[in-house]
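[User] At your convenience, examine this fold.
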Amino acid sequence: MLKDVGRDFDGTGAEVTPGGVAGSDVWPREVDLICLSHLRWDFVYQRPQHLLTRCARGRRVVFVEEPVEEEGVARLELGQREGGVWVATPRLPPGAGPEVLRGLLDELFVWWDIRDYVLWYYTPMALPFTRHLRPLATVYDCMDELSAFKGAPAEMRQAEAELMARADLVFTGGLSLYEAKRPQHPRVYAFPSSVDVAHFARARAAGEDPADQARIPRPRLGFFGVIDERMDLELIAGVADARPDWQLIMVGPVVKIDPAELPRRANIHYLGAKSYAELPAYLAGWDVALLPFARNEATCFISPTKTPEYLAAGRPVVSTPIRDVVRPYGERGLARIAGSAPEFVAAVEAALGEDARERVERGDDFLARTSWDRTWARMEALIGQAVAGRRVAAGAAAESFEIGKESVNV
């Protein structure tokens, strides 16, 4: 019998045990983890990188990222990244079907003698080239509602239903997603994205301003992350127009939207993508951190990782009414919530005029109860139980088969 060890988080820092007895089962180190992702490892350092680098401390981890289309012979490019994760980049000729990618993956399994493994999915669209695999356990880490994103394949929802049926465990990246997925699977666990407090706390110490930010006057309102269809561009323009003396700094890559659509003002600064290591230096120079997300289908279930990262940096946070920011951060007074440009301006003004000490203390107390290490430990224990449960079931089936053979022989 599997024991429920992972704790659901209700988004307030409280732990909710879905039933059973807390405990841990052994997940042998010789069991590999194969991750199938729609993301690129080197694009933005976020949830997959935090979790899988921790997994790689104890076992072999292969991160199979989205294929790159290029002329030539199909091949799988392998490279090990800092943290020990092996990144496999499929390079496929135009028009190559899933059977080509399946063949490359099978070759990898033979080459590396991968026999016992766990499959970890970030996208159900990996099913066409992995259905034939027989893992010891299957995990679906649902960090976003991908079917709601711009350009999502029409078959995404059907593929996710199949993946949910195959999965032993479903993890969600936030409380809203947990509530949506819980009725669809018996073992769904909410694991809101955590934070590396020590990394972002560096922003509290005075340091040298990055060169491209140093020339920008203050006060500075900053955002870092992917700039895509989830951004409320009208809101950003409205705040910039209302207070031309405020400087809006946008750090991150622009994807899935035309850069020409971005609002252009003298006090809006697009600084491009930065590495994870560079982010604290930018945060250190901001007076207020922003979450200017639009309220649309793509943001209905998001749980921004950057919220606790902003708090770890000691910055006041102003956000639009995203459900997983409102609770727990807005409800606990750790973020100001504003829905329109005038409300956003008023919230920023309040943040600029506040006594930060009490807010920072409350933020530190909240963050003390979470970490990526803690999140991974709970996930790992759940996977260990799933692996053990599958092995027990397989052993029982083999024993039943042998007994059946003896009965026939008698």
The chain has 13 helices and 17 strands.
